[in-house]
Amino acid sequence: MFVLANFIGAVATILNIVVTILIWLIIIGAVISWVNPDPYNPIVQFLHRTTEPTLRPIRRLIPFRSPIDFSPMIAIIILFFLRLFVIGSLIDWSIRLKLLPK
């Protein structure tokens, strides 16, 4: 049972790292968007390619258009929920599997 527990713990850790990186990329992309960046800059293109799949569905769901784009903030809240609920549950599950009587 310890192999399954270690596997679940490893998946939770990797998911946590991916979610953390995505949160930081969204924050950096939002801050860079304030200064009207060059769209041909490779860093700007990378940020757009990595964050747009997360932000596009949220932008479609927002019923109103305003000068301020709230989709990064909503995405970060969703990612924090994912981190707390899903990844936290996986970590707890892993710990409980390790504590099962043998």
Care to describe what's here?
The protein is an all-alpha fold. The protein has one domain (2-61, 69-99). Helices cover 79% and strands 0% of the residues. The protein contains three helices and no strands. It is elongated. It starts with a helix and ends with a helix. The model has no long low-confidence stretch (mean pLDDT 92).
Topology record:
Elements: H1 2-33, H2 42-61, H3 71-99
Helix pairs in contact: 1-2, 1-3, 2-3
Question: What's a concise summary of this model?
Answer:
The chain is built from three helices and no strands.
Q: Any key phrases for this structure?
A:
3 helices, 79% helix, mainly alpha, 102 residues
Main beta sheet strand tally, sense and closure = none
Which overall shape is indicated by the principal axes computed on the Cα atoms? elongated
- Give the % helix: over 70%
Rg from Cα: 18 Å
On the 0-100 scale, what is the average pLDDT?
Answer: 92
- Could you spell the SSE succession in H and E letters? HHH
Strand content: under 5%
- Unreliable stretches (pLDDT < 50, length at least 5) are none
- With helices defined by DSSP (H or I, 4 residues minimum), what is the helix count? 3
Distance between the termini: 9 Å
β-strand number: 0
Q: How many structural domains does the protein architecture include? A: 1
Class inferred from helices and paired strands: mainly alpha
